[in-house]
Design brief:
CATH class of the largest domain: Mainly Alpha
Low-confidence stretches: none
CATH superfamily of the largest domain: Homeodomain-like
Oligomer: single chain
Number of helices: 17
Number of strands: 7
Strand order of the largest sheet: 3-4-7-5-6
Distance between the termini: 36 Å
Largest sheet: 5 strands, mixed
């Protein structure tokens, strides 16, 4: 479901161009009066409405006209919760958690490596003909939230789109303040770790906690086990923690539930906390091993192991080979598979 705030912004921008916006409602099943009686419209209606807006504007770059105006206020409870978070990283976590519990066709996931956090937009259902515009607007929303917290343009990141460079690509660099690239498997934004850890001057712990409880409630009321909301929440939490060696107690607390309840929720999704933790540890171990110059001792420390011997044993359990053997076969073009 899509907030009608976006429709009002579209109407405003069309009017500013001297264009009659009444045509955007054609074949959508809604009209201007709908905006006064409901706060949301279906994904299908919004897709058709946005396609109509592109035709009215006669400009394929129309998304760049209204996208920059979509930020904290247009995002409703997700925006107010994010802007109340204690840090930029927690604000970004808020967006990904709400997307999993609320969105029906795009799911945001946050992962990390040694240099940056990446928020990826996974299209779990066909968006429609307005797909490109919606992905553009999503990146503007994230940029606006980042820049509100930073208090300056976000220039040190990276945007990647899963479509070819559009005819109006020159406008991207004037509006998206970090490097832009195209033809990726999925649309994403990368934020350097040092920037993501920036404190938020607008922090409001009461509002933030209320918002987090709302996320937990949405997850609890979600009936589709295939969505694996709890597994994805744990993976996100582990990816964005100082090390993946986080206790199940801490993860359960982030969802306002007991350890036993979380374990039961994960079991319904055919997962376990230990298995998810091992998955993240293994993924991060491979990254440090293949993409950095860190030695085994440093990698062990970064992953939260007391000594390198424990890390080596864990690595062999994951891949049935030592870290050095992994590097050897990987250099020959063979990537050992994770064994769980």
């Amino acid at each position: 479901m899509i907030s009608t705030v976006y429709i009002r912004i579209i109407i405003r921008e069309l009017n500013a161009l001297g264009i009659d916006a009444s045509g955007i409602f054609a074949n959508t099943g809604i009209d201007i009066h709908t905006l006064d009686t409901t706060g949301i419209v279906s994904n299908e209606a919004f897709d058709k409405l946005l396609c109509n807006a592109l035709k009215c504007a006669q400009d394929p770059a129309f998304g760049l006209k209204f996208g920059p105006h979509c930020g904290v206020l247009t995002s409703g409870i997700i925006g107010t919760t994010a802007i109340a978070a204690p840090s930029l990283l927690e604000a970004l976590r808020t967006f990904t958690e709400f997307s999993r519990a609320h969105a029906s066709y795009i799911r945001l996931e946050i992962t990390a490596d040694s240099l940056c956090y990446r928020i990826t937009a996974h299209e779990i259902e066909k968006i429609g003909d307005s797909r490109q515009v919606q992905l553009e607007v999503m990146m503007f929303i994230l940029q606006n939230v980042i820049e509100v917290i930073l208090g300056k343009p976000f220039t040190q990141g990276k945007y990647g789109f899963n479509f070819s460079p559009p005819s109006y690509q020159a406008q991207y660099q004037a509006l998206l303040n970090s490097k832009v690239s195209y033809c990726h498997k999925a649309t994403f934004i990368e934020i350097p770790i040092a920037i993501a850890k920036c404190f938020n001057p607008f922090v409001d712990h009461s509002t933030w906690q209320k918002g987090k409880k709302q996320i937990a409630k949405l997850m609890a009321n979600h009936s589709d086990l295939k969505a694996k909301l709890y597994s994805r929440h744990i993976l996100s939490y582990l990816h964005t923690s100082e090390t993946p060696q986080v206790s199940i107690k801490e993860c359960a607390a982030s969802l306002f539930m007991s350890e036993r309840t979380l374990a039961r929720k994960l079991a319904l999704e055919h997962a376990s906390f230990r298995q998810l933790q091992e998955q993240v540890l293994a993924e991060q171990a491979v990254h440090y091993l293949t993409a950095t110059e860190h030695n085994i001792e440093t990698i062990s420390y970064k992953l939260g192991y007391n000594d390198a011997a424990n890390f080596r044993r864990a690595f062999k359990r994951w891949f049935k080979c030592s870290p050095q053997a992994y590097l050897t076969v990987e250099s020959e073009g063979v990537v050992p598979k994770l064994l769980f």
